[in-house]
Amino acid sequence: MAKSEAHYVLPRPEFDKPVKLLIVVAPYYKDIADDLVAGAKAEIEAAGGSWELVEVPGALEVPTAIAISDRQSNFDGYVALGCVIRGETTHYETVCNDSSRALQLMGLQGLCIGNGILTVETRDQAVVRAETAGQNKGGGAAAAALHLIALARKWGDQRKGVGFRAPSDAILLAEKGDGSTTA
User: For the whole prediction, is pTM greater than 0.70?
Assistant: First the structure.
């Protein structure tokens, strides 16, 4: 059983400047969501960060709330929390796949997101994964977001002369006006 299996955990990142995260939770299963949130808050605070919390109706709304916040707020990262327990219909697959896919796509666009939306077969599995004294998946999702923020800060200001540039960067360089193409 996964409960007794040991996993390597990266050391907590350290920050020179404060970090601010948005925790977005779907409290459909309130007791499970509360444990996930408690784990996330504790991990963020242990790293010296601050957080805000918003609730949305379900797991499908979590990515939308993060996208809205990214356009209109100033968070360094996001923690997506919720729980989807398999039921009798294919709705489970839709919710699991679509929420995960949306979060992954935003991550690939540069957002620092820790995905702590549990996708389980039974309530008992969810409880074990959510408990802060158990697998603490809420804390793990916050830790993932913090690690991504640390990477973004590490590489954020670096521009090297090797590698690929996004097409918009190449166009700006080519269109300096005087024919030069230096950065």
Answer: yes
